[in-house]
Amino acid sequence: MADTLKRLLEVERQAEAIVESANEAREKLVHQAVAEARLAEQRFEARIGEIRTSFLQKSTVRAEQTIAEMQRRFDEREKQLQDVADQHREEALHAALALLLDPERE
């Protein structure tokens, strides 16, 4: 019976050693994960300026493209209106000239 108790105590000590080893390994993994997360956060924070600059550059390009497109449409519309105005001016001149040359005609 004494041998059985000694074996049980030895097995219990071995089990406690295994549990202690597992706890140490778990703590080590947790500390590694926290350290990696902190590094990732630091890398991200270091890149914030670069990310912001990139975003602003892309936004500026898109804004310039939009402005250019709006200017193109404005110029097209202005040309259309100018053509219509020229046409109406020409018609008005012809009508005025016809009226001056033949006042009886209306």
What does this 3D model show about the protein?
Helices cover 94% and strands 0% of the residues. It starts with a helix and ends in a 5-residue tail after the last helix. The radius of gyration is 44 Å and the shape is rod-shaped. The protein has one helix at residues 2-101. The protein is mainly alpha-helical and 106 residues long.
Features:
single chain; 106 residues; mainly alpha
Outline the secondary-structure elements.
Blueprint: H1 2-101
Quick one: biggest sheet? none
Average pLDDT reading? 93
Structural category is: mainly alpha
Count the beta strands. Answer: 0
Q: How big is the Rg?
A: 44 Å
Shape: rod-shaped
Percent helix: over 70%
From the N-terminal CA to the C-terminal CA, the straight-line distance is 137 Å
The ordered string of helix (H) and strand (E) elements is: H
- Tell me the strand percentage band: under 5%
Q: How many helices?
A: 1
Low-confidence stretches: none
Brief overview, please?
By secondary structure, the chain is mostly helical. The chain has 1 helix and no strands.
